[in-house]
Fold:
Amino acid sequence: MSTTTLLILVAIGLIAGIASGMVGIGGGLIIVPSLVYCLGLTQFEAQGTSVATLLLPIGILAAYNYHQADVIQWKYALIIALTFIVGGYVGSKLTLNFLSESTVKKVFGIIMLVGAIKMIFFSK
Structure:
């Protein structure tokens, strides 16, 4: 691994971590596009790498800070976490077995675009 690649990976991790801690985003919105456009990974490689990255450390320290502030709905988080496991498995199987990379890129882009438009123009 080159020094440049290492520095890009460190930057991606720091930016995604800061964004995750601040507004709850990071994996899909920052890590995946960064891996595709900065390091040339395929969409599937980027998604797999992002999922693997988030497997264990997904905001442990950020969650601790929010817990300290008593602003976590633990029952909600548990239900989402448990169903996220099932959804992640089903989603990855469907994507890898039935969709082309170009289709996945388009779906990913549409989701980001719709989310951005809603946040910019329709948030209170």
User: Anything to note?
Assistant: The mean pLDDT is 84. The chain has one domain: 3-122.
